[in-house]
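Morning!

This is the sequence you dropped in the shared folder:
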Amino acid sequence: MKTLNEAEIFVSQSLRVGVLVSAVVILAGLILFLSSGQSGYPGETYPTTLKDILAGTWSLKPFAMILSGLVLLILTPVMRVGVSILVFLKEKDWLYVWISSAVFLILVCSFLFGK
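The structure's back. Tokens below.
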């Protein structure tokens, strides 16, 4: 029972860290946007792929930074499912390993192939 409690605490802390990191990235992008008055992209062009978003974030473009924070926020619960797989593996709870793995696979596929 002690290891289950430790796992729940770890998952809870991971979710908090994910939300806080995404909030900091979004806030940094918002501050850059408000201070410069520009999105970092000319006209009506914006990054639409993950590669473009990450490149724009690396270049400190405000709009890309805000999008990166949103992507991090979306990925936080996905990370939670991944951590759950590891917890269930450690506990040798094979039914939940398979269920969590299926959910994780569906989430990853939806990000890779969704539009």
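Headline: Residues 2-113 form one domain.

More detail when I'm at my desk.
O.
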